[in-house]
Amino acid sequence: MDFAFGSADEGFRAAAREWLAGHLVGPYAELAGRGGPGSEHDGAAARRAWERELGAGGWIGLGWDRAHGAYGNRAASLTQQVVWAEEYARARAPGRVGHIGENLLAPTLLTYGDEAQRRRFLPAVARGEELWCQGYSEPDAGSDLAGLRTVAVRDGAGYRISGQKIWTSLAGEADWCFVLARTDPGERRHRGLSFLLVPMDQPGRIEVRPIRQMSGTAEFNEVFFDGAVARAGHVVGGEGAGWRVAMGLLALERGVSTLVQQIGFAAELGEVVAAAVRGGALRDPVLREQLVRQWAELQVMRWNALRTLGAAGDAGAPSVAKLLWGGWHQRLGELAMRLRGAAAALGPLDWTAQAPYELDAPQRRFLFSRADTLYGGSDEIQRTIIAERVLGLPRVER
């Protein structure tokens, strides 16, 4: 496929650059480049305001399928979506808190939702007014999503949901959660599941508990549902179709969005290379070879992502992409620490009772990346999917 930038793309780039320069000011400029992976919940009020600013500018939902109409966002080709991501990264704009609604929920509703659901939820996402979180993993069913135990029982015009989700990103800031729950207790595994849209503002019925990680941040949360209410009209794809919808969403999570993700990876690699140049680490041939390898592997990931875009129906492509970027990002974090030597063990500030656990961005990235090969489906799960669905090997008994 042709992935070159044309004159229209460069015009789009100029517009994006001009808009970012004019709006990334004041409190938004203070957020620029701050924190790092896992810190998107810091400065929540300013980040929510930034989402509304993006929405007002029409910059949310650039890649949405417009077959069902527009929902407040501007049209953009795939190359223009990449241009926007490049300019966003170049401007060091704030980490997004609306990406789950924009990149996961919205394409899912466009594919599996009905018109009433699209009209209700998509404009609010496009305006940056409603934030979403994802209720998939559970304490005893992390990567084994079909083993979940959260239940949704029909109650009149809606459902009552009871159970627990874990590793729920940005649950403390979210207005809504899309929840995978069992609606047919007589079925097992992936049968009898439904995909429900659940409002988070239900005191006494929904409790969110932050999970403090070794990076010192608390982006992830436990979420407890105790009779939480969801409307019958907010079941996406119909009752019992949850597994099909959930798998479709995961394909979106690991598909086109990996191209945008790699732009961030390239910026991180550039920071590591710059640090190596400043510190003189390039004189070490082993470290130099590792830096070159990271660069080469990033190019391979980009080419694989482009190949995937033109290979509809490739069942193993999302799993291959997850395997590639999870290990790559972990190795980048390790390399960043290795380049610093013993200084990597020192925090940026002296210890105080008020700030006992301060880390700089590379240290936080290194610690956070330890989870890259686990969340979103562990490496073991991805290899099983490739073995069974691509190579045709016998299925593992579960």
Total strand segments: 8
Shape: globular
Q: Mean of the pLDDT scores?
A: 87
How many H/I helical runs?
12
Structural class: alpha+beta
What kind of sheet is the major sheet?
A: 4 strands, mixed
Q: Give the N-terminus to C-terminus distance in angstroms.
A: 40 Å
Helix share, percent: 40-55%
Strand order of the largest sheet: 1-4-5-8
Our estimate of the beta-strand percent is: 5-15%
Could you explain the architecture of this structure?
The chain is of the alpha+beta class. It has helices spanning about 5-25, 25-30, 45-55, 80-90, 100-110, 115-125, 240-255, 255-280, 285-310, 315-340, 360-370, 380-390; strands at about 130-135, 150-155, 160-165, 175-180, 195-200, 205-210, 220-230, 235. β2 (about 150-155) and β3 (about 160-165) form a beta hairpin. The strands form two sheets. It has a four-stranded mixed β-sheet. Strands 2-3-7-6 form a four-stranded antiparallel β-sheet, with no helix packed on it. The protein is globular, with a radius of gyration of 21 Å. The longest helix is centred in the last third of the chain and has 25 residues, at about 285-310. Helix content is about 45%, strand content about 10%.
Features:
single chain, 398 residues, four-stranded mixed β-sheet, four-stranded antiparallel β-sheet, 12 helices, 45% helix
Short synopsis of the structure:
The chain is of the alpha+beta class.
Topology:
Elements: H1 7-23, H2 27-31, H3 44-56, H4 78-90, H5 99-112, H6 115-126, E1 132-135, E2 151-155, E3 158-165, E4 176-182, E5 193-199, E6 206-210, E7 221-231, E8 235-236, H7 242-253, H8 257-279, H9 285-309, H10 317-340, H11 361-368, H12 379-390
Helix pairs in contact: 1-4, 4-8, 5-6, 5-7, 8-9, 8-10, 9-10, 10-11, 10-12
